[in-house]
Design goal:
- The protein is mainly alpha-helical.
- The protein has a single domain, classed as Orthogonal Bundle (ABC transporter involved in vitamin B12 uptake, BtuC).
- It is built from eleven helices and two strands; from the N terminus they run ααααβααααβααα.
- Strands 1-2 form a two-stranded antiparallel sheet.
């Protein structure tokens, strides 16, 4: 009986990895605002659904899957632009600007879909990824392989972009906005662009997630910021001592997302009450956020004796 339960878990792991990879794209978007721009952007809870809604509706209207994904990404860019305008042009605090955009996107998403849920059938549409493409399909059609390639391309593009003058300006803005401004960098423009890139990635993730699960739902983005932060923090906790290059830091976020969903699957396998899963996510994020603080508190460097070491 126990062996049967173990096999149930093993059979579920490929699906967990696929979900982790899809959410990793969203987590990379969160990383850009949270770590690069140093902004807590809550727009992502709405943008994820926007990406899924736009992709599904476009495909139902007869658009090609790639065109639909591009349209979804553009919708995410627009959402990030709105949050950026709220923050820079209207002077609203970034966390409140994200909440306002997220609130507006609820209505926008309902209007896009026409109802709270819009399904898309893998048998009738040529989807890029799907839950059915996990097993018994050619490797080039496997969801894990396809999304892994997408992530590799995205990391390469982001690594190139943040190495350009504009990208370095965005990183400087997040590091020290006052110093960047003193160097003649347009920090407001950089914040808007950073928010657009971040939410574009989140919408792309939403488009792939909607295809994977076979529907877009008005609630599909609820709590996604917690999952994104969990992926970022777990990836840093596991690999920060090894990965110092910017591209590798982005890769660590993807690894963190996969680990999160693997743990999530194990928790479900252990028959934990599903009503407690959101609380579990919050606890995981809180613990991983606290670990660096605890390390600083309990491993403070010893102060050298007065006069320094002998023969120093």
């Amino acid at each position: 009986m126990f062996l049967l339960d173990i096999m149930t878990l093993v059979n579920a792991l490929p699906g967990a990895v696929a979900q982790g990879l899809i959410w990793a794209i969203m987590a990379i978007g969160v990383y850009i605002t949270y770590r690069v721009l140093d902004i807590a952007d809550l727009t992502v809870d709405g943008t994820l659904c926007t990406g899924g809604a736009v992709c599904v509706v476009c495909m139902l209207a007869g658009c090609n899957v790639w065109v639909s994904i591009l349209a979804a990404t553009c919708a995410g860019l627009l959402a990030g632009f709105v949050t950026g305008i709220f923050h820079t042009f209207m002077g609203i605090q970034p966390i409140l600007a994200g909440i306002l955009t997220q609130l507006a996107l609820w209505s926008v998403n309902l209007k896009i879909m026409g109802k709270a849920n819009q399904a898309i059938n893998v048998d009738k549409f040529d989807l890029l990824v799907s839950l059915r493409y996990i097993k018994d399909v050619p490797f080039y059609q496997n969801t894990i392989f396809v999304v892994a390639i997408v992530i590799a391309v995205l990391i390469a593009l982001l690594y190139w972009f943040f190495g350009t003058e504009l990208g370095c300006g965005i990183r400087a803005t997040g590091c020290n906005a006052n110093m960047a401004r003193a160097q003649g960098i347009n920090t407001n423009l950089n914040k808007v662009i950073g928010l657009m890139v971040s939410n574009g990635l989140v919408a792309l993730s939403g488009a792939l997630l909607a295809q994977y699960q076979g529907f877009a739902d008005i609630n599909m983005g609820r709590g996604s910021i917690v999952i994104g932060l969990a992926a970022v923090i777990i990836g840093e906790a596991l690999l920060s001592r090894v990965f110092h290059n910017f591209a590798l830091k982005l890769l660590s976020v993807a690894v963190g997302s996969i680990v999160y969903y693997l743990v999530y699957q194990v928790v479900i396998w252990c028959k934990v009450d599903t009503d407690l899963l959101k609380a579990f996510s919050a606890v995981v994020v809180a613990i991983f956020l606290a670990v660096p603080y605890w390390k600083r508190q309990f491993t403070k460097p010893t102060v050298a004796a007065k006069g320094g070491e002998k023969n120093a």
